[in-house]
Design brief:
- With 186 residues, this protein is mainly beta.
- The chain is 14% helix and 59% strand.
- It has a ten-stranded antiparallel barrel.
- A hairpin with a 2-residue loop joins strand 2 and strand 3.
- The radius of gyration is 20 Å and the shape is globular.
- The N and C termini lie far apart (68 Å).
């Protein structure tokens, strides 16, 4: 039995399983989308009036909330402000204001009133990826969840946003949003 266990858990087997587990946890890099069109121009898209429509799913994939939102973006000296007002199907209203500041490597850092620390915005081609820690109201308290935002410009003036929310590395929710520029000729 011991020799069988030793053979099964050989260093090569352990290395293979480690690589397999690590690759299963990896996610695509935004650079994969560098050649995709239309290009996601942060200042152009998040400028002026926008509207959004979305759903929130629990960890089982069941839709638990619907929402609509208005967004208003403004840029001054390269720094953007994006004010969001979310209206949920149960009547709850949430506000978030993002401040997007350029950093030294040509990317942006984003902060918001209900975000812990800052999120790093990475853009390539038609894609924008951002990770951050969001405070979410839950049972009369605030729960901190990690958010992995993936936005894809599917045509001029229209962005699809998919987000995965995790807590302690476990997926706890999913968000799907369509964001449209108002008066963009869509």
């Amino acid at each position: 039995m011991k020799s069988m266990m030793k053979r099964f858990f050989s260093p090569l087997t352990i290395a293979f399983l480690s690589v397999l587990l690590l690759s299963a946890c990896s996610t695509p890099d935004v650079s994969l989308y560098a050649k995709n069109e239309p290009k996601f121009e942060l200042q152009d898209f998040f400028s002026g009036s926008l509207k959004a429509h979305g759903i929130l799913k629990n960890r089982s994939g069941e839709v638990i909330r619907y929402f609509n939102a208005t967004l208003e973006g403004d840029w001054k000296d390269g720094v953007g402000t994006l004010a969001e007002v979310f209206t949920f199907d149960d009547g709850e209203i949430q506000n978030r204001t993002w401040i997007m500041t350029p950093n030294d490597n040509g990317e942006y850092t984003a902060t918001a009133n209900d975000v812990i620390g800052a999120g790093d915005i990475k853009i390539a081609g038609n894609a924008l990826f951002m990770n951050y820690v969001l405070q979410v109201p839950y049972d009369g308290d605030l729960l901190e969840v990690n958010v992995d935002d993936r936005m894809y410009m599917v045509k001029d003036g229209v962005v699809m946003n998919e987000s995965i929310m995790t807590k302690f590395g476990v997926e706890v929710g999913y968000l799907s949003i369509v964001i449209e520029k108002i008066n963009s000729g869509i």
